[in-house]
Amino acid sequence: MEKAGSKPVTSPGEAAIRPEYIVKRNASKDGEIGTELKQEQSIVAVETEQTGDGNGPPPTKRRKKERGQNKRRPRAARVDHADQLCPSLNHGDRSNRFCQFGDKCRYCHDCSEFLAKKPPDIAESCHLFTKLGRCPYGLACRYGNSHMTPDHQNRINEDLFDPDRAGTTINIISRSLQENLRKKKVELPKSEKFLKEFEREKKGIRNNQKSCELEEGGSGRKEEKEEGEGGKEVGEEGKGEMEKGGEDKEKGREGKGEGEGEMEEGGEDKERRREGTIGNGSTDEVKEEPANPEGREVDEVKEEPANPEGREVDEASGKRESSDAASEPSQPVEGAVTDEDTVILRPEERKKIDFRGKLYLAPLTTVGNLPFRRICKEFGADITCGEMAMATNLLQGQQSEWALLKRHASEDLFGVQVCGAHVDSMTRCAEVVSTHAEVDFIDVNVGCPIDLVCNKGAGCSLMDRRTRFESIVRGMTAVASCPVTVKMRTGVHHRNWNAHKLLPRLQDWGVAMAAVHGRSREQRYTKLADWGYISQCATAASPLPVFGCGDILSFEDYEQHAQGQAGIMIARGALIKPWIFTELKERRHWDISSSERLDILRRYANYGLEHWGSDTIGVENTRKFLLEWLSFLYRYIPVGLLERVPQTINERPPLYHGRDELETLMASHYCNDWIKISEMLLGPVPSNFTFLPKHKANSYLQH
After folding, report:
1. Does one domain contain both 519 and 667?
2. Do residues 6 and 695 touch, judged by C-beta distance below 8 A?
């Protein structure tokens, strides 16, 4: 209890830390909390520079602290191909030392030369060799001494190695699918059928609107003429002019003269702006957009849309054959021949998922990678979702984009999130993903706030374009063989929220579940999530299941806000403490020790080596994503240090030290200390290594 008239222990927005752990800056000594205070002093150091003539007081300039940024980030230099070992020599198997590229190969073929340039090994044991019995990276492995012989042969542990063992990573794109996507040879009959019907309906609506506009325009001119006469009787000359005007009007309707044609085009353009839809990429519609979003190739759409994939269409039977398949002899088909590849499922026929009451790990760009999702699954997450993938990039077969769809075997309820602004690309993407990837649901991103996405008409901007939003969702639900979900915000602008108006329509469009982040695009993280509005949205959307998202960091937060929601989605709370899923299920606060937290990071590093590789490139990729995660992890305040439990997500701690050195290091908000933690797990960083967080996580300053 505080005495009357005494000063409050903490200032507003500051976490209540026990006094014995708070560091007083004026009384601190060098080395008391490692490098933190020295770096703090160097950041606020004042640099002076002389003016041109040297007279007068020198101006002062405060050096700006570098914080997280997404644009123009410093990037690590790529490893030259000549410094990488050719994959044909990677495993050290003499029988496979033939390179199919011969002299044109850009990689190194001299094992001795490669080993001379290779950095020293990180540790004595290789995680992949210990787990699988054989390291797939051979000589290039940064732990290679544990499984390589002196004559550059890759050892195999016969007791562990099983060549027929199925991999734990699912949804690896095949080379043939990637090539067919790039050449636009992938069969998408459901999408083509839907887009043809969609274009036909849109043209019918436009024709009706044009006829209505013409009728309104004609009656308007007639009324104008009568008002101009001022109610006087019309003489013979006036009657002749009116008759002449009527004849011209009829000629304009029948022959579509130049002036009338311009009027029609103007009305059509105006209607397109009102609709706000792009359709399947017609030239007239693209003129509405200031730029071609997502760099799509645009062809003029005639009455019958062109076949974008160059397939031959049999009008009589409705079957499509690729140019390659037409030249090959037909092969007999064994078993029953079904039409499930062309029949569009009705909503009641589609696979059902019971989302209610489950803990949902939100799709998180950059940090929501496969190793992180494995960690969260171990702590009790029920639903996981991949990082946001752009629909056009998936349709182009980009390797980096398809890597975001990879799924681990432990993810028993897994979805992928796609983002796009166009009906055609999103519809085709939904069919490709549901056909060629093992996913339980497809999530539509209607919540991404970044300008790069919203300026193209995708992400959160779809909330202000209801017609386009509806067309995209209807197209995806029509062609996907799995449920389609939506993740959105409260709205685009602050206090001009419209999620409660859109959500009741989603079930009619075929959506299986919706998640609402309790902030608008303008707010970002400047305000707390509005759970009252989320509850209002859930009531308006009933019986559609609605998940709420925002600021959940403890089981008290969960129990306070879970009422009225179908479930809770966890985002930053899982990044700050991934064991939050265990806390929510067991209804307790876990005072986790620094050694336990280091074990979590060690597991993450091992999962990263499995996912990205144990060669130099894989190790540095693992380090990069580990550092991105550490930019959130340091915000966790140990329960044993708090005066008041629980920690809330918007409270910032004063400068404090932990119960041991490692806990103090993990609480540091400096990138250099995060790099030290990564070196404990992945060895020393390269000499030219630099890191700046992608998210502005280290702008979360301690006072």
Report:
1. no
2. no
Which residues contact residue 68 at a Cβ distance below 8 angstroms, ignoring those fewer than 6 apart?
631, 692, 693, 694, 695, 696, 697, 698, 699
Digit-coded pLDDT (tens) for 450-500? 999 999 999 999 999 999 999 999 999 999 999 999 999 999 998 789 999
Determine the Cα–Cα distance for residues 458 and 461; give it in Å rounded to an integer: 6
What's the domain range around 681? 19-30+618-699
Contact 119, 127 (CB under 8 A): no
Cis previous bond, 684, omega within 30: no
How far CA 371 is from CA of 128, 396, 404, 406, in Å, comes to 15, 26, 12, 11
> 661 and 548 in one domain?
no
State the distance between the two ends of the chain, measured CA to CA, in whole angstroms.
24
Which pair of structure tokens corresponds to residue 305? 């849309």
Integer-rounded Cα radius of gyration of the chain: 31
Where do we find the tokens 């000359």?
237
Q: Nearest Cα to 185, choosing from 281, 311, 305?
A: 311
Q: Is the pLDDT of residue 440 over 50?
A: yes
The C-alpha atoms of residue 601 and residue 665 are separated, in whole angstroms, by: 14
Peptide bond into 646 cis (omega under 30): yes
pLDDT of residue 88: 80
Contact between residue 517 and residue 386 where contact means Cβ atoms under 8 Å apart: no
The answer to whether residues 595 and 662 touch, using CB atoms and an 8 Å cutoff, is yes
Q: What is the phi/psi pair of residue 361, to 5°?
A: -80, 120
CB 519 within 8 A of CB 489: yes
Q: How far is residue 402's CA from residue 170's CA, in Å, rounded to a whole number?
A: 11
Q: Is this structure's pTM higher than 0.85?
A: no
Q: 529: which residues sit within 8 A by CB, 6+ positions away?
A: 517, 518, 519, 548, 549, 550, 551
Is residue 15 a contact partner of residue 642, using CB atoms and an 8 Å limit? yes
Last residue of a domain, one of 165, 183, 205: 165
- Indicate the Cα dihedral angle 284, 287, 293, 296, nearest 10°: 40
Among 149, 165, 181, residue at a domain's last position: 165
pLDDT given for residue 75 in this prediction: 66
Is 597 within a domain?
Answer: no
Amino acid code (one letter) for 247? E
Gap between the Cα atoms of 429 and 632, Å rounded: 32
Contact 477, 426 (CB under 8 A): no
Residue 65 included in any domain: no
Catalytic choice (135, 141, 448, 671): 448
In a domain, 653, yes or no: yes
Q: Is 126 considered catalytic here?
A: no
Helix (H) or strand (E) run with residue 355 in it: none
Q: Which two tokens stand for residue 116?
A: 């001379």
The single-letter DSSP state of residue 68 is -
Tell me how far apart the alpha carbons of residues 374 and 239 are, in angstroms, rounded to a whole number. 84
Residue 34 is classified by DSSP as: B
Any idea of the CA torsion for 644, 562, 476, 187, to the nearest 10 degrees?
70
What is the SS3 assignment for 268?
helix
Distances (CA, A) of 11 to 541, 655, 667, 703: 40, 13, 20, 10
Q: What is the DSSP letter of 158?
A: T
d(CA 657, CA 109): 51
